[in-house]
């Protein structure tokens, strides 16, 4: 049996941009992606602390060291610049493996979204 478990989380980052006219996705600073073991095009859940919205989308690389968190396309309607969000990625694994799996949690600086 396989189960879906939390693989990684970027906890409490501020939305820096919202671009309704983009094709879709969420742009994330590449440093944050690396720290959280999230790859480009990986599906993530975005949980908005400010309004309770929960959406699923995929990640695209943002400029390294920029702190960028930009919701693109229709997802831009679910946030406001300055909202605090949590990004969660999930992975499928064997039930026994999942029992001992340790997810990666990243806690960036709450003001700059940069790693501390």
Describe the structure in your own words.
- By secondary structure, the chain is mainly beta.
- It has a single domain (2-95), classed as Barwin-like endoglucanases, CATH 2.40.40.20.
- It contains two helices and eight strands.
- The chain has helices spanning 30-35, 95-100; strands spanning 2-14, 17-19, 25-29, 43-48, 54-62, 69-72, 84-94, 104-106.
- An eight-stranded mixed sheet has the order 2-6-3-5-4-7-1-8.
- The radius of gyration is 14 Å and the shape is globular.
- The chain starts with a strand and ends in a 10-residue tail after the last strand.
- The mean pLDDT is 97.
Order of helices and strands: EEEHEEEEHE
CATH topology: Barwin-like endoglucanases
Contiguous low-pLDDT stretches (5 residues minimum) are: none
Rounded average pLDDT: 97
Major beta-sheet overview = 8 strands, mixed
CATH class, anyone?
Mainly Beta
Strand order of the largest sheet: 2-6-3-5-4-7-1-8
The tally of structural domains comes to 1
Q: So how many helices?
A: 2
Percent in helix: 10-25%
Number of strands: 8
How would you sum up the global shape?
globular
Radius of gyration: 14 Å
* Measured distance between first and last alpha carbons: 38 Å
What is the second-level CATH architecture?
Answer: Beta Barrel
Proportion in β-strands:
over 45%
Structural class: mainly beta
């Amino acid at each position: 049996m396989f189960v879906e478990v939390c693989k990684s989380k970027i906890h409490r980052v501020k939305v820096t941009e919202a671009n309704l006219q983009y094709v879709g996705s969420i742009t994330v600073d590449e440093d944050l992606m690396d720290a959280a073991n999230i790859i480009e095009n990986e599906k993530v859940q975005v949980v908005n602390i400010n309004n309770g919205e929960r959406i699923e989308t995929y990640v695209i690389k943002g400029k390294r060291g920029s702190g960028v968190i930009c919701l693109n396309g229709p997802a831009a309607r679910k946030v406001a610049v300055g909202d605090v969000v949590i990004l969660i990625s999930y992975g499928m694994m064997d039930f026994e493996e999942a029992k001992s799996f340790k997810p990666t949690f990243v806690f960036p600086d709450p003001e700059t979204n940069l790693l501390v």
